[in-house]
Amino acid sequence: MAAxxxxxxxxSVPEKVLDHxxxxxxxxxxxxxLESADWDYGAPLADVKxxxxxxxxxYDWRQHEAQMNKLPQYMTQISVKGFDDLDIHFVHQPSxxxxxxxxxxxxxxxxxxxxxxxxxxxxxxxxxxxxxxFHIVAPSLPNFGFSEGVSKKGFSLxxxxxxxxxxxxxxxxxxY
Length: 176
Hints:
Helix content is 29%, strand content 18%. With 176 residues, it is an alpha+beta fold.
C-alpha cells in the first residue's frame, strides 16, 4: 500500500516496550522532599509515589489500548512545505447524516486525540435530523500521540495549521 494512502490504524505497543517501562519505573530514585513544601516546588513526594505505584502495579495498558482501538483511526502522509512528509495519525468519524459539516477537532497541549472521544457520539449524528451533524476529524498533531515527530527546527504554528489543512483536503473537505 502506498505511503500516501489513508490506512486504517490500530494501537499496538509491543510487550517489550511495556516491560521496559515497568523496569524503568522500578529503578526510579525519588528525591527527598522539603518540609511543608506542598505544591510550592512541584508535586508532593507522596503523590509522586502513589502515581509511581499505580503505574507499576495497577495500570492496564492493554485495557486502554483496546478502548482506543474502538475509535475509527487512520494514518496517512501529509506534506509540509520546507519539511519532510509526516505520517499523521487521526480519528475520522464521518456522519451518516446528509449535508453533515466537516469539523476539525484539534487537541490542546498537553493533550491528545483522545480529547475528542466524549463528543464523537454527540456530534456525528443527530437523532431526529433537526440539529447539525458533523464529519469529525481529530488528528494527533506532529510530535504528539501516534503522529510522526518533526526532525528539524522551525516547525511552529503555521506548519501545524498546514498539516491540519492538508489533512482535511486529503479527506475531501475543502471547506470545514
